Amino acid sequence: MGTGMELIIFLVSAVKSTGLSNRVVKESIPTFPNPMLSCIMLWASGYSEATLNDSFLADLDELSDNEDDLLEADNDDAEHMEEDIDGDLADIEALNYDDLDSVSKLQKTQRFTDIMQGGFVVALPLSYSATDFLVLKVEDALENGSENSTHGIVLEDDPEYQLIVDCNALSVDIENEIVIIHNFIRDKYRLKFPELESLVHHPIDYARVVKKIANEMDLTLVDLEGFLPSAIIMVVSVTASTTSGKPLPEDVLQKTIDACDRALALDSAKKKVLDFVESRMGYIAPNLSAIVGSAVAAKIIGTAGGLSALAKMPACNVQLLGAKKKNLAGFSTATSQFRVGYLEQTEIFQSTPPSLRMRACRLLASKSTLAARVDSTRGDPAGKTGRTLRAEIHKKIEKWQEPPPAKQPKPLPVPDSEPRKKRGGRRLRKMKERYAITDMRKLANRMQFGIPEESSLGDGLGEGYGMLGQAGSGKLRVSVGQSKLAAKVAKKFKDRSYGTSGATSGLTSSLAFTPVQGIELSNPQANQFGGTQSTYFSETGTFSKIKRT
Amino acid sequence: MEYLLPTLRKKQEVDSLIRDTLDKVLVLRFGLSSDAVCLQLDDVLYKSVKDVSKFVTVALVDTTEEEIQVYLKYFDITYVPSIVFFFNAHHMKMDSGSADHTKWVGTFQRKQDFVDVVEEHMVQGCKSSLCNCRRYTERQ
């Protein structure tokens, strides 16, 4: 049997959570309660994942020490690490060839009988080197499978469904593992090429690039074609020529390369798991896969944690499943996508014009939630509901893209026949207040009987002052009320701060003596508006209006 | 432009049109369809007829016809083209800057000019006691 086959069988069998291997692992690693995870650890990164974590901690401790100690500790640790890594490798190899075989041999008898009864695992298209024994099993399994599917049993009891659920959880765990390994690689490779981590974000791409570059200082000798888009390759080469990194020591390099290998292996394993799930998606969730496609359906079921969990989610959450939360600092946010998750990868979404994508995404999320609900209760095993929903979605999207009806030239309305729409409300009142007649103007407009008014040019020439300033007017003093219009204009100009702002008093200085930092320069205009100071004491505030009763 | 706008040749036609146009401004253009200035005016009229159709009716009166001479004498039309405005069978007078307030002589430069004139006629006609259309200019 090829190693590919071993991988799958072991993987899948590992997922089943029965058998010898789990118990062994459970005893040896108390830190991993999840049996599946521990199994994958057993295979992918060896049971010394714990030691990998310890090495992280060791590295962190080293960083805060002196350089000498660093070097020494590094050397010491390197030795340990090497041993561990060797141990890992040895274990892995042992696992791969000895233990794996033995385990899988064990499983073969045990697992495959299980599979015979209800499993469909062996129906994987990856069984290139299938033996006759397996082929028979496949056919049997397929027959059993087709029989089972017509029963319409509750989904949760279906063993294949369990398998799919486990595969989903496994893929999520693998992803987390990849992130951890990526961090490790990054930390190690930082000495050599620190800028690479900000140029290449994707963990798998990063691992590939690191593996390709290895310890090479001259990037012109390294061919990165096919790993990255050419623009990024160019940027990487340019940055490499001016990088501040130094070549890594041999042992560190070896560690890094090994970690890269592990990451890549994990990635390929995840792909295989997803392919398997995808191939069975048509059976598990026919309606959902009719709408969004089997790959995306597999992914969202995986992220949701099962078909029934997905069915319970509101559509707005389904839309966001798988949305990338990372904000790429340093890159422009021009490409920052709106809030879409895995649904972004569906064919329907990709084929809508960009202006309609937001609406299409919402529509897609709602219809796929409906389909998921139908699937979770096995209401329509043929997938007809899914196809009708898909047709509906297509129709709606086409309708949105129709040009608007041609504009008919309308005849002009009869003049003065339409009533003017009068607005009211607080906002309008406040706006009108700014232009209202002030008290001063009111007084100036009136005149007292029998008393001649004063005028600006005297003797009746010029503008008359009316009752303003007259003795018997009944007002002790009329002051220029703070007009709101003036206040608003003043505020606007203040914001622009033409030249020196006249509001700060001459005694304030922009230098401040602070205890911690010594002398501090503060911007006198920094916190003038919107600061903690209330508008009561603000310089541009108006008098509060006291309503006349 | 006889084929685009209704053209009147008989006195009886003109009479009936004036009587029958209710609550709308009636625009009668007196002129010849072969005259250059007339043609320009007719063009403007034709373009605006659709827009003002809610409150305006436009008709052309051929001044070469015999029966129409009565009107020419009545309205004292010598220059061609001339436009006379009616509202509810009432002849509307308009101060257009010239001495003659009873009619509009000549052509309009732009379509908007014609629309303005006619809108003003409509407003005045509505305001007057000639019609009982609703008026929203009053404060409610």
TrEMBL record, chain A:
Main location group: nucleus
GO annotation (BP), single: spliceosomal tri-snRNP complex assembly
Localization (cell): Nucleus
GO MF term set: RNA binding
Pfam family membership, one: Nop
Family: Belongs to the PRP31 family.
PANTHER family documented for this protein: PRE-MRNA SPLICING FACTOR PRP31 (PTHR13904), U4_U6 SMALL NUCLEAR RIBONUCLEOPROTEIN PRP31 (PTHR13904:SF0)
Name of the protein this chain belongs to: Nop domain-containing protein
